[in-house]
């Protein structure tokens, strides 16, 4: 089987069907499109909304043997509650994110307005990047302090990777 990239909905559906075991799993109407795609790739088999995972589907999930169905002791966590762990990859060279990180590394720090001018981002986008993407995507943190002319931001100690 070739490398296949599954959407999060397809992966969750395949996991639920595989967890149901050989008894099969009844597919909800809203998941029929994903089920049809998985059948087309040979990862699921079945009809009339009752599907089972094929050996190829189990292999795609990294399962070797029949998985036991989930029991009451193992509650299923809805996909919305699952969060990906933050990654720690530096921004690609030549991007606006890399430009912002370089500005944050300056000894005297940088203001939101200077970042906004340099990147063309609106101030709320700069603050969003500092609070969100910088931490979640790049594994870095910014600290700020009040100064004359506005808040000054710089990378937190140990935040430069």
Q: Kindly report the average pLDDT value.
A: 79
The tally of helices reads: 6
Largest sheet, spatial ordering of strands: 1-3-2
Stretches where pLDDT is under 50 for at least 5 consecutive residues are none
Explain what the structure shows:
By secondary structure, the protein is an alpha+beta fold. The strands form 2 sheets. The chain has a 3-stranded antiparallel beta sheet. Strand 4 and strand 5 form a beta hairpin. Helix 1 crosses helix 2. The radius of gyration is 23 Å and the shape is elongated. The model has no long low-confidence stretch (mean pLDDT 79).
Summarize the structure.
With 161 residues, this protein is an alpha+beta fold.
Write out key terms for the chains shown.
two-stranded antiparallel sheet; 37% helix; 161 residues; alpha+beta
Topology of helices and strands:
Layout: H1 8-20, E1 25-26, H2 32-40, E2 44-47, E3 50-53, H3 55-61, H4 96-104, H5 112-119, H6 123-136, E4 142-147, E5 150-155
Antiparallel strand pairs: 1-3, 2-3, 4-5
Helix pairs in contact: 1-2, 5-6
